[in-house]
Amino acid sequence: MKGKFYGIGVGVGDEENLTLKAAKTLNNVDIIILPEAKSGEGSTAFEIVKNYLKENTEKVFLEFPMSKDIKLKQEIRKKNADIISSYLDNGKNVAFLTIGDPMTYSTYTYVLEHMNDKTEVETIAGINSFNSIAARVNIPLVIGDEDLKIVSLNKDTDIYREIENNDNVVFMKLSRNFTRLKQALLDTNNGDNVVLISDCGKENEKIYTDIKDLENIPYFSTLILKKGGINQWKKFIS
Predict the structure, then answer these.
(1) I want to staple 128 with a disulfide (CB 3.0 to 4.6 A). Which of 46, 51, 60, 100 is the partner?
(2) Residue 11 per-residue DSSP state
(3) pLDDT number for residue 42
(4) 87-125 per-residue burial string, b: 16 or more CB within 10 A, e: under 16
């Protein structure tokens, strides 16, 4: 009998934010897949879920390098999907762990598109970074008729246009282009309308509402812009 493939969102750092469904599933799977950008760098996702796993759960690390070579990335994703399929064909239930939510900028989706149509799949939602951050600092993402856009920041992002055209913007993947983002926010007089959190839910978590003097920021950083202002909510930030 073929095994079942699970995509499980584990949130962004706090193990208590794991859903009951995710915790129950993790306690029953045979294998967990732990994606790595570089072999040997370890897994944040594992640290979040390790207390929910049964003792004999097998850990499989699969490398998904951050390469600019699109063809190479496709080949690696297909190879990793084939590895997972081989476990499923042997009757193993396999869970692919992903930081945040499996359907929001997740490596899991790149694997899923290479799985064949005979694969039984269940995706278990997780709390993503911007929901977690908004709750952490008690600042609403949207109110009333406001809109919200999620932007994956890259070298080609027209940051000024994104700021101009939206009431609220979540900027993700900041670390490589933070200088450009900071300048655009200051130029548009939005420097006081933002909250940035690095390593949300972890012991080294940092919260910033003043970005003027920030330079380098950690990889796990997300910024929320509320053009309507955040002053009325700052009293709830702890």
Answers:
(1) 100
(2) B
(3) 75
(4) bbeeebbbbbbbbbbbbbebbbebbbebbeeebeeebbb
